[in-house]
Amino acid sequence: xxxxxxxxxxxxxxxxxxxxxxxxxxxxxxxxxxxxxxxxxxxxxxxxxxxxxxxxxxxxxxxxxxxxxxxxxxxxxxxxxxxxxxxxxxxxxxxxxxxxxxxxxxxxxxxxxxxxxxxxxxxxxxxxxxxxxxxxxxxxxxxxxxxxxxxxxxxxxxxxxxxxxxxxxxxxxxxxxxxxxxxxxxxxxxxxxxxxxxxxxxxxxxxxxxxxxxxxxxxxxxxxxxxxxxxxxxxxxxxxxxxxxxxxxxxxxxxxxxxxxxxxxxxxxxxxxxxxxxxxxxxxxxxxxxxxxxxxxxxxxxxxxxxxxxxxxxxxxxxxxxxxxxxxxxxxxxxxxxxxxxxxxxxxxxxxxxxxxxxxxxxxxxxxxxxxxxxxxxxxxxxxxxxxxxxxxxxxxxxxxxxxxxxxxxxxxxxxxxxxxxxxx
Length: 425
What we know:
Largest sheet: none
Distance between the termini: 38 Å
Mean pLDDT: 82
Structural class: mainly alpha
Number of strands: 0
Low-confidence stretches: 202-231
Shape: globular
Radius of gyration: 21 Å
Order of helices and strands: HHHHHHHHHHHHHHHHHHH
């Protein structure tokens, strides 16, 4: 099989893996049986999600290290074992021992997902130096839509066979999918990158041709210097000394804080506009759909235009969506709520796609997995800052309007950071 055909096959299976590990964002659905059986409050359950996200970031770094020091295959098998252990270990939970859930589903499961995310992304994206945005967009769309697929399946199985049996089934199926993926997913060789670059050259723009040739030279051990004097293939240490890393990190922190501050209360925000419970659930589902489809759209746009312009568009959709949501709260308009959710969902979709593309375009393919894992650490302060802002205004004013206005201003600040990044670049 030619390298050009291989990469699409590997991308297709990578998308399957991302559906399997996307359960991490469906905790609100997976937590239902624990609330019903043990009577745990929202604070106890939300702590599990916080631990899950922090472990995800740590697991990304560990996965990048393991795939470098060992092989992606071994690293992927370890991630499969951790996720399986996370689900099975949760079976030992009792009403007076929530810490078991924190340590199993939270720590082991989160680390396993973080490892697999970085390993698969780090192994698959280098096959698509000419279509980085499209490849990452497809995977991340599946990752986002996983919440609907696995969440709906889990809810059905909870009522049909019980949550313990459901967790066993999920552990077995996810382990098999990831274990098979360990033999399917791998990084391309220098010869394969050269073949892909040669075949895609007639269809690519001049910028993408340069990117393809650059990637091929780097993976074959021949780095190329650009006119700016930088080697377009940074180690993690070099990346940490580059100002573009920190400016991008601030952009990601701004938008990530807005996203985590709003999505955690999306159902309550919808109810605050006056819609019914069923309508609020529909609007939250629409947010997930917009987020998933938007990832593919943003990924395609990323390949066609300058990354800096893509970042401005992403931040602009955040601003527009948040502003319309604020107007929906003031007027109680269902139409404005619908438009605001769609705009904000598309804006949300751009941040993870931009992260995977930014790491490849700015810092090169050779150390891509390590660099991407470090970039994703911004999720931790975002997860702390965004929900804290929402909670602060909710307690002081009893509503979400103040928080939305603050998030609107933060999104505007993100655009400023893009303009700074453009001058650095």
